[in-house]
Structure formats: structure tokens, C-alpha cells
């Protein structure tokens, strides 16, 4: 059997790091707590139908040496303007959401202060400094350790939860009524991640090539992606299962406050593994959210810098400028809009869902265009799955809009 070379992996782990955040620790766990195992169908379907459109990020980048943003620009400047405006609306809220949960976990684990605002600002400053000093190389190395630690702790927690469970398990699948529809849409919107993360992946793929003496092949790049994607799906099922096994039918509801939620989340793990594992599991949850915080803080400035370069025909790198803008904007949300965070996150998740068909269409159009060498274009099975995915995402979006 051929040994896996970890040094060849990278962008796929970064994808996992970006995905395994609010969608997993928060929404998947809540799905299990509120519906038991009843939303497994939604989790599996959305991951299946989003798969090709995420995969087209590294596929396009390796085949053409360009990012998806370059491709959008070639399809039409209006598409790139649309991305720029959508990302400008959502990136501050997304960054704030993941940082607040990270801050809540930090306050419970390390004490020092219970102020979520102070922790959020401190974490943002630390992550910004880390990225400015180490850039992609440090990020690539750090994320591998974090994802491996998180996977091991989740598997252990799930195994013990199954053995300790005394109640009969029901795997009956359900479709939420109108009151639960909003949660379902938010769940699908960020599961395993918003589709624009495919753009980040295409950028990270090219950055990875810059750090290697020999460029990765498209086969290696797709293997890297599949490792990251399967990891995100598996861990999403783990968090949903933990919510179902520990919190379903207990009358316990998750708090909307970052600090309180963090305490409940750690308790979810330690109630299965025992109080002696509190520190280990707490650190695992914290590092998972920290990985999301740092990857989003890296990816949004990279994508916005590239977008500005293309739209205004500039050669300058605006990575640092956009990082400062993002850090300042999220800081303002921490200081002045923290009480409205729940509503802001709901808006961002719903917007991620209703824009998914837009990104799916563009990604599919690019990989079957003349820009792609025919040998690197998706095969028939993946094309069929892409068409079905477009119908699924568009259909659910239309259903949600008509249900309002």
C-alpha cells in the first residue's frame, strides 16, 4: 500500500479547517439536539450535491494555473462584481460568528476574563499576527495537527456516547415544519461550508504549489481535496450524533450566547468522556474553532485582494489591506452589534444558501469550458451529479423563498 505523504496534503485540510466551525460545532450539534438522527438525510444529501462544485475549485486551479475568480472574470465582469458585493456583505458577519464561538470557548478554558469582546479582539490580533508572519507555510503546517487531534477526540467521544446510551435509537428521518424550516435552510447553507469556499480552495491550491519545488498533479490535488471533504462529512455526522445521543429529548436547549454555548458544548463531550477529559476535549473544540477563525481570516483577504486586482486591473497585492479592513470590521461588530449576532449569523447563513446555485452554476460552467483541457474536465458521472446538484440547490432555494 502506498504511504500517504502529509507534506503533499494542505489545501484539503485548510478546506476542512474552514468548514469544521459553526456548521459542525454549532449547527450539526443543534440538529442532533433538536431532531435526533432525523436530519441525517439533509446532511448527506447536501454534502453529496455540493461535492462536485467544491471539487471544481482545486480541479480548475491545477488544470489552468488560475483561480476561480480569474474564471469568473473571463465569464463576465458582472459575475465578479456580484461575488465582490456578496462577499463584502457576508465576510464580516462570518468572521465575527466564528471568532465569537472561539472566544466563548477560550473564556471557559483559560479564565482570565469572561468578556467575549476582549477575547474576540485578542484572538483576532493573534491570528492576524500569525498570518502576517508565517503566511501560507505556517497555516499549512498548523492545520494538519489541529484536524488530526479533532478527529481522534470526536471518534472517541462518539464511541463512548454509543456505549453509554441507555435509550432506544430512532433513525426515522423527518422534515421540519415551518418553524424549523429556517434552521434547516441555515443548516444546509453552511453544510459543510458556503459554496464560495471553493474559491478559497482554488487560491490555496496555487499557494501550495508556490511552496513546493515540484507542482502537485491534478490527481494529487483531488486526493487532497477528497481527504479533507470526507473528514468534514464524517465529523459533521459525529457532532450531529453527539447532539442526538446526549441532548435529544432532554429538554435542554443550546444558548444563543457565545460563552454559555461554549460551556454547554464542552459539557457535551465531557459528559461522555468524564470530567478528567475536560481539558483535552475543551482544547480540541477550541482548536477546531481557532482553525476556522484563522483560515477565514486568511481566505477572505486573499479572495478580495484578487477580486480588486481583476476588477480594477491592478498588480498590487492587497492582502494586508483587506486583513486590516476585515479585522477592523469584525471588531466593530464585537463592540457595537454583539447583541444582534444571532440575527446577523442567520442572515449570513440564509444568504449563503440562496447564493449557492449561483456559485454552483459558475463553477460547473468553468470546468466544462474551453479554458479547461479536455483531459481534466469532469467525467460523465460527475457531470450528472453536477446537474442533479444544481436542481437540488435551486429547488430548495425556490422552496424556501416561496415559503416565506
Short structural description:
With 404 residues, this protein is mainly alpha-helical. 77% of the residues lie in helices and 0% in strands.
Defining traits:
404 residues, 77% helix, Amino acid/polyamine transporter I, mainly alpha
**Overall morphology:** globular
Sheet with the most strands, sense and barrel status: none
Order of helices and strands: HHHHHHHHHHHHHHH
Rg from alpha-carbon coordinates = 20 Å
Give a structural overview.
The protein has helices at residues 11-19, 22-35, 40-64, 68-75, 77-110, 116-164, 178-189, 197-210, 218-246, 258-273, 278-311, 319-336, 341-354, 356-367, 380-403. With 404 residues, it is mostly helical. The chain has a single domain (9-403), classed as Up-down Bundle (Amino acid/polyamine transporter I). The longest helix has 49 residues, at 116-164. It is globular and about 60 Å long.
Itemize the secondary structure elements and their pairings.
Layout (H helix, E strand, L loop, with lengths): L10 H9 L2 H14 L4 H25 L3 H8 L1 H34 L5 H49 L13 H12 L7 H14 L7 H29 L11 H16 L4 H34 L7 H18 L4 H14 L1 H12 L12 H24 L1
Helix pairs in contact: 1-6, 1-8, 1-9, 1-11, 2-9, 3-8, 3-9, 3-14, 3-15, 4-5, 5-6, 5-10, 5-11, 5-12, 5-13, 6-9, 6-10, 6-11, 6-12, 7-13, 7-15, 8-11, 10-11, 11-12, 14-15
Amino acid at each position: 500500500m502506498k504511504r500517504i505523504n502529509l507534506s503533499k496534503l494542505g489545501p484539503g485540510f485548510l478546506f476542512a479547517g474552514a468548514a469544521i466551525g459553526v456548521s459542525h460545532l454549532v449547527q450539526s450539534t443543534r440538529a442532533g439536539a433538536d431532531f435526533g438522527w432525523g436530519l441525517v438525510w439533509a446532511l448527506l444529501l447536501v454534502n453529496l450535491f455540493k461535492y462536485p462544485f467544491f471539487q471544481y475549485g482545486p480541479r480548475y486551479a491545477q488544470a489552468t494555473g488560475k483561480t476561480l475568480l480569474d474564471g469568473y472574470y473571463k465569464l463576465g465582469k458582472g459575475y465578479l462584481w456580484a461575488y465582490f458585493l456578496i462577499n463584502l456583505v457576508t465576510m464580516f458577519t462570518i468572521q465575527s460568528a466564528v471568532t465569537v464561538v472561539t472566544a466563548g470557548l477560550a473564556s471557559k478554558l483559560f479564565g482570565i476574563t469572561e468578556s467575549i469582546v476582549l477575547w474576540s479582539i485578542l484572538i483576532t490580533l493573534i491570528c492576524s499576527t500569525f498570518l502576517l508572519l508565517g503566511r501560507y507555510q505556517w497555516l499549512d503546517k498548523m492545520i494538519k495537527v489541529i484536524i488530526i487531534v479533532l478527529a481522534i477526540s470526536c471518534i472517541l467521544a462518539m464511541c463512548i456516547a454509543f456505549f453509554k446510551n441507555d435509550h432506544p435509537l430512532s433513525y426515522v428521518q423527518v422534515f421540519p415544519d415551518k418553524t424549523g424550516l429556517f434552521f434547516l435552510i441555515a443548516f444546509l447553507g453552511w453544510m459543510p461550508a458556503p459554496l464560495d469556499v471553493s474559491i478559497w480552495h482554488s487560491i490555496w491550491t496555487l499557494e501550495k504549489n508556490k511552496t513546493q519545488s515540484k507542482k502537485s498533479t491534478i490527481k494529487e490535488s483531488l486526493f487532497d481535496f477528497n481527504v479533507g471533504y470526507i473528514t468534514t462529512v464524517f465529523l459533521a455526522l459525529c457532532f450531529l450524533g453527539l447532539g442526538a445521543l446526549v441532548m435529544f429529548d432532554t429538554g435542554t436547549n443550546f444558548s444563543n450566547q457565545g460563552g454559555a454555548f461554549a460551556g454547554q458544548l464542552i459539557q457535551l463531550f465531557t459528559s461522555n468522556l468524564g470530567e478528567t477529559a475536560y481539558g483535552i476535549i475543551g482544547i480540541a473544540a477550541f482548536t477546531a474553532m481557532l482553525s476556522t477563525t484563522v483560515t477565514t481570516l486568511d481566505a477572505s483577504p486573499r479572495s478580495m485582494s484578487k477580486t480588486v486586482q481583476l476588477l480594477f486591473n491592478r498588480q498590487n497585492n492587497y492582502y494586508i489591506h483587506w486583513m486590516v479592513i476585515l479585522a477592523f470590521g469584525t471588531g466593530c461588530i464585537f463592540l457595537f452589534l454583539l447583541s444582534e449576532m444571532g440575527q446577523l449569523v442567520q442572515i449570513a447563513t440564509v444568504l449563503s444558501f440562496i447564493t449557492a446555485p449561483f456559485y454552483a452554476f459558475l463553477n460547473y460552467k468553468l470546468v466544462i469550458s474551453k479554458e479547461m483541457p479536455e483531459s481534466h474536465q469532469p467525467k460523465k458521472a460527475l457531470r450528472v451529479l453536477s446537474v442533479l446538484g444544481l436542481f437540488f440547490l435551486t429547488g430548495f432555494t425556490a422552496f424556501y423563498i416561496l415559503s416565506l
